[in-house]
Every structure is written in structure tokens, then in C-alpha cells.
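Board notes (copied after class):
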Amino acid sequence: MIDRRDLIKLGAGALALTSLPVAAEQAIPLTRKRPPVIHRPIPSTGELIPVIGMGTSRTFDTRGDPESMANLTAIMQTFTEWGGTVIDSSPMYGKAEQRVGDVLRAMQPAPAVFAATKVWVKGEEKGVAQMQESERLMNVERFDLIAVHNLKDWKTHLATLKRWKAEDRVRYIGITTSNGRNHKEFMEVMKSEPLDFVQFSYNIEDRETEQTLLPLAADRGIATMINRPYQRGSLFGDTRGHELPAFAAELDCYSWGQFFLKFILAHPAVTCIIPATSKVKHMVDNMGANVGVVPDADQRAEMLRVFESVS
């Protein structure tokens, strides 16, 4: 945790950093009144959430010094000011949960967020203790979503989570995979358990889940949270030196990052995407995909054709 003295320093640093989005926003043509944020429903309840959320893997795992906290606060302010609410973390991500909690405690007034984390340990008692610690670290009285991370001891933890949901200690429950493996077991859990959310990797280059997890989620009425939308940054290397196609402006895409996010969003089974960033200007860019046109099937096919031609 950070102390009061650090909070004062953090606030001063955050004020300096909040000027960054202005410069970044100039590269994103928007009217004076921003378009409405795109929302999609969580199938199990119909609750609407913004389609662009925020991941915290690596990016929020910092020492907690005033400089890094000022940067994280500016990132969070940008995210919430642009209509973002869904924040995803995990005990697996080092200090990320603690840093999220530190930032949320420092922000006044506190923003309304959809707080999601994971349980990532073996054993019922250890799982309960870990989830309670996550509540403390992230400054959350009740998580909106807790998922079993990478299927670790999933039978044990889903039993606990189903009980917690019945007791109104968590709103939604789910499972995740971040490594692209275990999809067979993952699908069996999707078929047999009453899940609200699943989280997995999907992007314009890694499209395996179009034939497996995405259609199954649609059939089962399960919300999808998409990680690694930029293939851990490699997509930008694939397109470096290439200009966006002219038709991208018709889709309200003004960067390759927005192009990649809109491609994912164009799949009707996608509920929310959680790109992570450690830079305010990149957060502004990400949130630019949270508004405007959603590509239709023909436009999506053209986006794929363009990417394959330059990568």
C-alpha cells in the first residue's frame, strides 16, 4: 500500500500526466461530443458492459513508487473518463491487484468499475483465502466477476464460487485460459458448468477459437472476455511501415490498434476485450475503439484480407 505522503506526490504527478491524452486525442478524429460508448450484454443477465475493458497483466505490476503510481493513476483516469469500467486482474500478476486498489483509493470521487479477478491456487481453503485477499488488495467489497485462472483446481474453486454467487458474495463466475492450451478441457467445463464468463486469447492472427470457444459460448449463453488482442504486441510488428487502408476511416479506426480491436469486436460472440497498457496515449487509442462503427461481416472479411496482405 502507499502512504499519505506518496498519495500527495502521486496526485501532483497525475496532474502532469493528464495533459498527455489531449495530444493523443488529436490523432483520433472525434466530434466535440464523443459518440456513445459501445456496450454488449452479459448473456446470463442482460447487464450491459462497455466492450473495451482494461487488463493489468504486467502493466500494473509495479513497485508502487510515486512516479509509477502517478502514471497508473493517469491511465485509470483516462480509462474511466472514456467510459471504461471493466478492470481485470489476478493474483498471478504480481502486484497488479494491489496497484489497482491503490489507484482506486486515491481517485476522488471513486469511479464506478466492474471489478474482475481470478483464483489461482490449489485447495479450497487457500482459494477462499486468496479471494478474500484479492478483495482487500483491490479495495472491492464484492467482486463483479471471479474466474478460475487457467483451470487450476477448477472443480474445487467452481464449487466455492457457485456457493458465493448464491450467497451474493460475487455477481458472476467463470473460467479462463491465457496460454492457448487445454481447450478440450476448457470446452468440457463450458458445456457442463453454469458459467457467466469465459476468458481466452483471440485476435486477428490467432483465430482458432472462431471454430471452437466462440460458437460454444454463443450456444451456451456465456459472456466472453478476450485477452491478448494484440498477440502481445507482435501484430504491430507485422504492420509496421504499412498505412491503414482507406476504408478504416469508415469503421472509425484511426490506428492499427483500433483496427485490431474492431476486428475482434466485429465477432458477435465477443462481449468484452481487455487490452493492457502502461502508457496513457495507448489507453486513449484503445478507448477510441469503444465508440463508433462495429464492422459487419463483409467489412470484417476485408479487414482480415488487408492484414494478411501486409503481415
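Comment from the instructor: DSSP finds twelve helices and ten strands in the chain. Residues 66-81 form the longest helix (16 residues).
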